[in-house]
Amino acid sequence: MNATVISIFIFIVGITLVITYFAAKRTNSASDFYTAGGGLTGWQNGLAIAGDYLSAASFLGIAGAIALFGFDGFLFSIGYLVAYLVVLFIVAEPLRNLGKYTLADMINARFNAKKVRGAAALSSITIVIFYMIAQLVGAGALIQLLFGIDYIWAVLLVGIMMTIYVLFGGMTATSWVQIIKAVLLMVGTVILSFLVLKNFNFNILDMFTQMKTATPHGEAYLSPGVKYKIPLDTISLMLALVLGTAGLPHILMRFFTVKDAKTARSSVMWATWIVGIFYVMTIFLGFGAAAFVGSDLITSTNPAGNMAAPLLAQALGGDILMSFISAVAFATILAVVAGLVLTGASAFAHDIYGQIIKKGQATERQQMLAARYASLGVSAFSILLAIFAQSLNVAFLVSLAFCIAASANLPVILYTIFWKRFNTTGAISAILTGLISALVLVSLSPSVMNPVAGAAIFVGDPIFPLTNPALFSVPLGFIGGWVGTMLSKELDVKKYSEVNVRANTGGFRQL
Q1: CATH superfamily of the domain spanning 39-394
Q2: Which residue ranges run through the membrane (predicted)?
């Protein structure tokens, strides 16, 4: 720990706290708390979406995965990027036209049933918890490395900060922290990429040639199969990443922070460009870490490889650049976890408390209090889980969250928008089938059970062969929705027609 590191960290944290202070003055209603009053512009929300999406898994996890596993690590970048096309062309506009604060609001536009809202809230909370653990694990490892403090205290420090942002600033503070973080992250990544290319004489072909001998994997480093030995495993992972984004509740919630569908589409365009440029640059971060840091130092610092990017910064730019990159990574994590806390709190406070327990009759003050209590609860629970998940790779944890989102949320979203016959029973069965199948299969997979000690949570032979079960759980989610629908006689064509008009035009939207 040195004065430079401390100064940069204090400066960035100070900026975020100033933002929170001013945002708190503008957060006077449930709408302000959950969606910043719907007042963000397209470019602002686009940067905020990119900020939400470019998480610790992207900056720390993917850089480490590419450094250690080459092409197999880059699969994460490909999957995350392609996923935005699904969001852009299928989900963004209908979601903005039908929803209000949460994913459950959008589904409830067609099925006014507490059971559907409860199932959607349960799915959202589960996804948020897994995603949150990944961010907190990355943050804990980073702070532990820089300040030399215990992992537990590092996680607690980040947890306290994220709770402050959400409690006092709501969506306004969270959005502006995301915007600033996205800009800082792109600046830091461009600087690192430039330095890596400089060391390869700005010759990309020469860079790929040198990488064939720069790692213990040899030429296999640039081919599939270093990490994922089973082809079906690779396909399953890609399916989770490509389809999961369209079901992530904290990304979907961002479309409620703009005034109309046109601005929602503009947001996605901005986000797609930023995210696309970033993921191309992860190649330089990963290759640079492998060539100029080395896998031995990367894994000795953090077995999962999460510190590859900060170590690369130190190797190429010394302590000052490492301090800046680490501070950017810290800001990245703070911003993302704040958004996740807000999303989890919305599911608890708005869906379960406000709409199910209080039957939509909660006062403005009751809604605000419930949201803040829920924020505290989500934060405390996530911190507790993150303390026991230190050795897990954050990219794996995030891919698991994507798998659940693709299996439980995406089927019900698509059926709600496009299938006339879809009904309440189908909605509940789609969510629960996707959620339960994903969780059960993961608990039996090599990610949880592995014969090599320390490679997973438990030592033993896995019962299910794939590390990510999306290849099976996503179809099961769709099949569950179809079977549930066909077993029920419920059919409301008039309601579907109304929802179809609203989804495509925004007409009859009730705020």
Answers
A1: Sodium/glucose cotransporter (1.20.1730.10)
A2: 6-24, 45-68, 74-95, 116-137, 143-167, 179-197, 235-256, 268-293, 320-349, 370-389, 395-418, 430-449, 469-487
